[in-house]
Amino acid sequence: MHGPGGLRLALRLGPLRNFCQERAQLRIRVGDIMQSIIAGAICAIFLAAAAAVPAQAAAQSADAKFKALYTKEWQWRQDQYADDENGKRPVVDHLPKVDPGNQLMRLHYWQDVMTQLNAIPRARLSAANKVNYDVYKPQIAALIASQQFREYEMPANSDSAFWTDIGYTARRPFKSLTDYQNWIAQMRDIPRYFREQADEMRAGAARGFTPPRVTLEGRDASFKSVTDVKPEDTLFYAPFKQMLSSIPAAQQAQLRAQALDVIRNQVQPAYVELLKFWNDEYFPHTRTTLAAYDLPDGKAYYQSRILEFTTLNMTPEQIHQLGVEEVAKLHTQMVEQMKATDFKGDFPAFLNYLRTDPKFYAKTPQELLNDAAWIAKVFDGKASQYFGHLPRGRFTIKPVPDELAPFYTSGRGGPGVYLVNTYDLPHRPLYNLTALTLHESAPGHAFQIPLAMEEKNLPDFRRYTYISAYGEGWALYCEYLGDEMGMYETPYDKFGMLGYQIWRAVRLVVDTGIHSQGWTREQALKYMHDYTALPDHEIETEVDRYIAWPGQALSYYLGEMDIRKNRARAESALGDKFNIRAFHDTVLSTGSVPLPVLDARIDRFIADGGKGPYPDEEK
């Protein structure tokens, strides 16, 4: 060890070494034997300590460098993106800069972070920081890959778009005067932000890097909720309808007037301009092919998406074959479950029965919301049997906003909210609702994500990031766990759970089929129609999402398989010592991590005899 610290260490240890050397040279008399043994033991202890101190100092130095690096990068990273549906930071007064110069700057910044990261010897990190390193490094690698493939040139697809994502901020509860002031300032920044996004979309279209045109049909409707209504009826004005009572009435009136002026004279014209660009310039020039392989450097791009979303080094061929095998297993289970309903007919006839009989569908949006709320409360009564540590954060249940609902998934959950899609009720089957609720609310997303945020001992890049293989794998595992918890009260509910399981297994086949094997949209639709119990409208929405978002759909089933595999090996290794609450708490205490990191954590769980992170709560 070099430097002043090393010099001080050597000075402190010098007399100890001299003592040991001198003592070893003494002649050993019979009466001195016991003293020599004791002295030798003392020497051994102190020399071991002397050897350990440089290693400890090196670990502290490596830990300090690592913490400084990730802390600075994480703080910087927050300002590079607009808020999303899980955003929790205070409302900011601007939107990110997305012009080519800033995009190149981001690439160089993250490449520099990776260089610094590679210079920190992982072996010298503390045990906790070795885990943090194994979580952080793939994050930086994924960010670099996204910039290198210029994913920012495709900022809209069938599932989400930058002009609708802005609305997530408007739906959040505002907590201070500054939030309102910053929201007005952020709205003033929308014209600049939209122009920069449009320029990036032009660059993407020029090189054939766009979503497939078929997946974008009708997506222009989302503009009309802003362009075709009064300023006070837009989502942008929603925070001002019921303001904080602590703000004086005169100031409230002033803020409302400012907001209406900005919406009328800046926000709405920006949406009109962007809609014209979409209809006249962008949409007509989007690509007519479907596969990721058809994009520039498509094979490498798709493989990078697989790695990011699954955290596994699997090829499309391996995933496709695994999907085919899992679909066959689950189909057999579904046929057996069909028999439990006493239905007289074959499997296609049963699916048609489920898709068309009115008894399986809510008659009003409120009925669907009420049923979802009931299911969530039933779980609350079972939670303590399966989980030791529960989140402090609560969630509400709301319908998907009208402007998003036609192209939105059947539900979506996160910190503080479970959104249920009440659009097109004849295609929202009740037999799927229990599995959906367990996935999206508790113990799924609206349970797991708050728990991660509340883990104050984790660095922020683990508390506030979302790794799809872990998060979606956990949520799908929760659907499976629902059977063990007794949540599926009818044979149809159990069939719905199996239908949701096979739906995610089908994704392994469909996603890889479309993006690496030349499947058509019709081929994908038929495969899902034949094997899942999903309504046709939802099948179309889902297939378009898989086409537009390569690789993301693979994360669910592969993540669930990993969690179930880890549980099975823990049960086998621990026997009677296995505690389901301790296991679940262990999985949830990691925050969102790559699957290999989760595997290593369960290795330690087994080695520790099944002890969970909250032993007093897991009894």
Secondary structure topology:
Blueprint: H1 4-25, H2 33-78, H3 100-118, H4 127-148, H5 162-165, H6 167-171, H7 177-188, H8 190-206, H9 221-227, H10 249-282, H11 298-310, H12 316-340, H13 347-356, H14 365-380, H15 383-386, E1 396-399, E2 411-414, E3 417-420, H16 433-440, H17 445-454, H18 460-463, H19 468-484, H20 491-517, H21 521-531, H22 536-548, H23 555-574, H24 580-589, H25 595-607
Parallel strand pairs: 1-3
Antiparallel strand pairs: 2-3
In short:
The chain has 619 residues and is mostly helical. 63% of the residues lie in helices and 2% in strands.
Sketch the topology as an H/E string, one letter per element.
HHHHHHHHHHHHHHHEEEHHHHHHHHHH
User: Shape from CA axes?
Assistant: globular
Which strand-content bin applies to the residues?
A: under 5%
Major β-sheet strand ordering: 1-3-2
Indicate the structural class. mainly alpha
Instruction: Report low-confidence residues grouped into runs of 5 or more.
Output: 1-34, 41-47, 49-53
Average pLDDT rating? 90
Please compute the radius of gyration using only Cα atoms.
28 Å
**Major β-sheet, in short?**
3 strands, mixed
Number of helices: 25
Helical proportion, percent range: 55-70%
CA distance, first residue to last residue: 47 Å
Number of strands: 3
